[in-house]
Structures are given as structure tokens and as C-alpha cells.
Amino acid sequence: MENRARYQRPTFITWSGMIQRCTSPNCVAWKYYGGRGIVVCERWRKFANFLEDMGPRPEGRTIDRIDVNGNYEPSNCRWATDKEQSDNTRIAKLKLGYNGSLYTIKELADKFRIKPGTLDGRLRKGCTVEEAVLPVRSKRAEHRLLSDDGVYADA
Fold first, then answer.
1. Cβ-Cβ contacts under 8 Å for 38 (sequence gap 6 or more)
2. Cα gap 116→133, rounded to integer Å
3. How far apart are CA 24 and CA 12, in angstroms?
4. What is the dihedral angle through the alpha carbons of 122, 124, 130, 133, rounded to the nearest 10 degrees?
């Protein structure tokens, strides 16, 4: 029995966190879950049912809601990797219009070779999409534009 309990512990911790996020206004993550109306289905309010439906949590995976605006329920949850989780967020799915096309923040950041967090930060500060993708001209950046003979290469 002790082995079984050890095997279920990560799953129980995940289940407990899910319950807290959705039911306790005192939880720091409440505003992103219960505060947005995300609930845990009635069946999953019992750990045994959650374990039966989801199985033990695989190492290196966490619970993920397939529809980020949907509830915690068997048809909307999976065990996901960190990459799958980061690709399945409200911000990751947000589409930005640029030059007649729609892009996610990651796609647009990759297109302009900037970090997604940098692009997101610029947009949150009020930059337009067109402004947010522009490279920042700094002394450090200009220094990198020097050619081998010490002349600026197109600064």
C-alpha cells in the first residue's frame, strides 16, 4: 500500500491544486481559474474519480485544459508537457494582425527574431504591433553593426 501511495502522490498534488485554483478565492491563482468561472466537474471533486479518469500523472507532465476557457472535466483535460502547456495558453492563441496576416505572438516574434516575452511586453506597454516588432536601436546594438575595419555597416 505504501508503494501505491507514493505512486499517487504527484497526481494527488495536481488534483489538490486544481481544486484550490477553482474553489478558493484565497488561492493566488483564483483570479485565473475560479474567478473566471472555471470549475471542476462534480465527478472530479473526488480524488478517486479523477485518478480513474486521468490515470497517474506521468513524470514531466502536468494537467492541461485543451480548451483554455473550458472546465476541468474528462473531455477537456490531458497530461501535457511544458511545451504543450505553453502552446496552449490564452496569450499563445491570441492572433495579432500584421501586414494583412494573422500571427500568434510566438510566430510574430520568430518572424522578427525577438523573444516572445519582449514582444508581449511591448504590446502591454501600448505599442502598436508595427512598433512592437521594430528592433531597438541602442549604442550596444550599433556597436554590433561595426564591420571588421571599424566602419558602421548600415547603422
1. 21, 22, 65, 69, 70, 71, 72
2. 10
3. 17
4. 30
Structural domain includes residue 120: yes
The answer, as to whether pTM is greater than 0.85, is no
Confidence of residue 141 (pLDDT cuts 50, 70, 90): very low
Cβ-based neighbour number of residue 51 at 10 Å? 16
Residue 152 is assigned to a structural domain of this protein: no
- Residue 28 falls inside a structural domain: yes
CA distance 103 to 91: 12
Per 3-state DSSP, what percentage of the chain is helix, strand, and coil (rounded to 5)?
50, 10, 35
Chain position carrying cell 508503494: 3
Same domain, 19 and 83: yes
Backbone angles phi, psi at 72, to 5 degrees: -80, 105
